[in-house]
Amino acid sequence: MKIDRLFDLLDNYAENYPHQDIVISYRTGDVWQKIGVNEYIDKINAASFALLHLGISPGDKVGIVSGNRPEWNMIDFAAMQIGAISVPVYPNISQDDYRHILNHAEMKIIFIEGRELRKKLEPILPEMKQLREIITFSDASGKYKSFDDFIELGNQNPQTEKLETLKQAVKGNNTATIIYTSGTTGTQKGVMLSHANIINNFMNVADIPAKWSNKALSFLPVCHAYERMLVYLYHYLGMSIYYVSNLGAISQSIKEVNPTMMSCVPRLLEKIYNKLHAAGATLSPIQKAIYYWAFRVAKRYELSGKSVWYKTCLKIADKLVYKKWRAAIGGHFDIVVSGGSAIRHEIASFFSAIGMPVYEGYGLSETSPVIAVNRRKTRKYGTVGLALPGVEIKIGTRDEILCRGHNVMQGYYKDPELTAQIIDSDGWLHTGDTGKIDKEGYLIITGRLKSLFKTSFGKYVNPELVEAKLNESPFIENIVVIGENRKFAAALIVPDFAYLRNWCETQGIEYTSDSKIITDTEVKKAIGDEINHLNSNFGDYEQVKRYKLLADEWSIANGIFSPTMKVKRKIIAQRYFDAIEELFS
After folding, report:
1. pLDDT (tens digit per residue) in 369-379
2. Cis peptide leading into 369, omega within 30 of 0?
3. pLDDT given for residue 185 in this prediction
4. Contact 350, 273 (CB under 8 A)
5. Rg (CA), the chain
6. Please, what is the Cα angle at 328 between 322 and 334, to 5 degrees?
7. Which of 71, 108, 378, 383 has its CA 20 to 30 A from that of 484?
8. Model confidence at 234: pLDDT above 70
9. What backbone phi and psi angles, to 5 degrees, belong to 27?
């Protein structure tokens, strides 16, 4: 059937995959709960009836403040099929961010995940003049209507004919959702996306999973445009979606679910890579030699031009080592989609060699989100692939990536001036990212315009390039390179303490605490040697001349990272002002 509106995915699923027993599965305790297609659609329709009964009309904003769970999708579809606008909000942002978004969007009704979020939001809810109703997904306090009560309200007040009339009135160019940006570069902006924006996006990447791929693991925030588009794609392909709400349970969940597809960020793959690398240190000399030989073979993996000798080595390495890694990691992966930031060539090669093929893409919330992506027949390491069909890419002033096509947003909500700043009169969206296009048309990301800084000698430094290279060291968990108007580049570094603990054990160094170990002479020398080695990849003015090791945790919760795991450089500059001044003194 033809899909013109996002909620058409529901009829498409029922028509083409009627025997699929799992649309979405989620974990409660040790048990995976399953929701089939009929139950799923019935609850979505009941939610639409309840919204109508509560006075929600086409064009009204319906807020969802929650992590990944089936109710999130139910409300998303329920709102859109009555012509309302779904407004997802990250469940881990600051109270000030909530105040701005909830007021700016003028939500009529809001769905909150549970008790902790309710307590965080309650102080600002009275400020929301448009708010009529609050529903909670998992809060036994009884203060607000529960999701079960909300669904029962819909079942008791069905309006089937009205719902069908409203669905028919929704067109592909209507606004489906407003997605607020993560706020790494300032106040969150409301990105307006139409049904057609998102449908074109997932339809143009639908050939990436193999036809046999039928299980998707989802743990990145579904309220982000990247994961959300993929979840719609899973619906379109009739795949079962397994939600993981606890990031610490990802490894165990992969083993239990045996997924064929998932999306992730490069840092997760780097952590798995580092853990596998560290695991070889405790083996016997012969086993260790075979283990790290297999590592070297995997890192040399290329998509084409493999010699007979290399193919033979690959088969031997797979039999001796890789199959054990796959068993340890879990899964039966057809594809792992990586986004959010650039992935190192050797990491992509490594995982593809061991049976977890990595496909890298690029985009923004403002582009629905994909601009370019690697595909099965057009895949090249070190790039984010070719432009989507119907999307144009060109390189503008100061190497900025510009994009034009069906994926470009309708604009920023209630901000035509800001919209005009990012989308020029010819329809080109200015991404703010820098890059280049190789001779075959593949896009390569090189950094972000707002991250570039100039030293006091007038030399431009791209900190993200330097950070990406230094992050190749297993000793480094997080790094921020600084040096605006200074004589040289410097860095704040949070070591990978799990790796460091293992390294200290092999070196016979006593590990008492994170804060103490970073003062150890041998540890400082080892990290210094790593930085000096990796510095050789850059010109003198780009090299990190000084650095400070930190025993701090950088996370979303403490405000260092955005919900999409991008570092907030302004927060770093404020929080570590004294340490930065000391570096340059």
Report:
1. 999 999 988 99
2. yes
3. 57
4. yes
5. 25
6. 65
7. 383
8. yes
9. -100, 130
Cβ contact 565:265 at 8 Å = yes
Under a CB-based contact definition with an 8 Å cutoff, are residues 263 and 338 in contact? yes
Read off the pLDDT band of 336 (50, 70, 90). very high
Other Cβ atoms closer than 10 A to 572: 19
Name, in order, each residue with C-beta under 8 angstroms of 306's C-beta and a sequence gap of 6 or more: 314
Contact 493, 583 (CB under 8 A): no
Comparing C-alpha atoms, which of 390, 393, 269 is closest to residue 338?
A: 269
User: Is residue 349 over pLDDT 80?
Assistant: yes
Residue 383, SS3? Answer: coil
- Whether 334 and 213 have beta carbons less than 8 Å apart is answered as yes
User: What homologous superfamily is domain 8-195+216-261 in, according to CATH?
Assistant: ANL, N-terminal domain (3.40.50.12780)
Q: Which pTM does this prediction carry?
A: 0.88
Q: Where are the domains of the chain?
A: 8-195+216-261, 265-403+421-449, 452-584
Checking if the pLDDT of 184 tops 70, the result is no
Domain 265-403+421-449, second-level architecture: Roll (2.30)
103-120: average pLDDT = 93
pLDDT, position 183: 62
- For residues 428 and 202, give the distance between their C-alpha atoms in angstroms, rounded to a whole number: 21
**At the topology level of CATH, where does 452-584 sit?**
GMP Synthetase; Chain A, domain 3 (3.30.300)
The answer, yes or no, to whether residue 182 has pLDDT greater than 80, is no
Separation between Cα atoms, residue 294 and residue 326, nearest integer Å: 14
Q: What is the pLDDT of residue 314?
A: 96
The H or E element containing residue 108 is: strand 107-114
CB 399 within 8 A of CB 436: yes
Question: For residues 445-461, b (16+ Cβ closer than 10 Å) or e, as one string?
Answer: bebbbebbbebeeeeeb
Phi, psi of 222 (to 5 degrees): -70, -15
Give the contacts of 196 (CB within 8 A, at least 6 positions apart).
4, 172, 173, 406
Residue count of the chain, please give it.
585
How far apart are the two ends of the chain, measured CA to CA in Å?
67
